[in-house]
Sequence to fold (413 residues):
Amino acid sequence: MTEDIGSATTPANLKNTEEIVEVDADQRTMARDLHQLNQENEKLSGVLATATHPLQEMNTNEIDDLPTKEPAVTNPHPLRRYSLLGNSAELAKTYSEPYFVLFYLALRGQWTLIYAAPNSGKTLLTLYMLSLTCRNDEEFGAHVYFINADDNFEGMLEKLRIAETYGFNMLVPGYKSFRAADLIALLDELCKSGNAHSTVIILDTLKKFSDLMDKSQQRRFNEAVRIFTMQGGTVVALAHTNKRKGADGKPIPEGTADMLNDADCAYLLYEVSSNGSTKTVTFENIKSRGHSPQSLSFEYSTKQGLKYSELLQSLQVIDDELLARRELLREQKEDAVIVEEIIRCINTGVISKMAIKITAAQATGSSERQVLKIIDKYTGSHPQKHKWEYRVGERGRKDFRLLNSFEGDEDEF
Fold:
């Protein structure tokens, strides 16, 4: 008898049936759980829809009266409170274009130093340049405070009369309770009161306000002046130079280098020439932040018996070309004795450099080094600057002649 294969129950068929039943049971369980979750969501949505927020039950005034809480700032930066970010517009209200408060030497808003030897005319020249600025701007003098701390009574009185003529202020230690030691505190007061930007202070002289050999004192003074100028204030300080000059023959600023390093601008003032009745001096720039000239020269009378006001009136500016011509004449006058002896040597047949050096030094009492310097200084072919020239002779010897005195052999020169 043949069995029905399709209806037969085998172990494999039985296993598949059991798996199908298990899957159906899992699906029914998931469906039931999903149905319950949907019911719970519907109940929650109904509660939220009918709920009333506490603020909705309050009127507007009650809401406005609620305390506000600023968001907490964690770990604020310690430098943030000092930042000027966003203050440029306010600061710009006190700014004005830089201009010279002292005849092309000292700029507004800067700290300028003028170094000069005692009795070289630094105070005279400063007052002269200040008077020029006051003439051009009648309101300028009211903002200038000239502190005369290095004078006697007669000199102070003369300068006070000049100040009254041009309308600038003069302060003198010992008068009206003013003391030089109060300057740093006064600079701080000017900054705090907002008056720094319109104030020009001239110190005569610097050593009365700070010990130029004490670095600690200088540091405090320099810091006070820098804060003052950073707020638009102007300081011009007159200072002395050492008795000893540098290798270049020019004066050396007195004190340590701290003062010069911290200043914005600095000049050396020194004598160029003097003939007994007039003196010529030059301001030479040794530090600059701005458009200050490299040099500026003046001439004034040195006649005895002149009043200070008359000395001021005698001052005049000397241009560079005129100064150069005068300097050349002065040097020629100083060199004249040695030059005349060298010319005599050449005219008498002493023409080698070595022979001229020995002969001229003995005749004039000068050193051989000084004679060599004069020989080299006036050697050349320019008729207005030079007096002789040379040609190389045997064994490299230099034979000198006065300009245009050789005959023939000109092609060898």
Q: What stands out?
A: Residues 11-50 form the longest helix (40 residues).
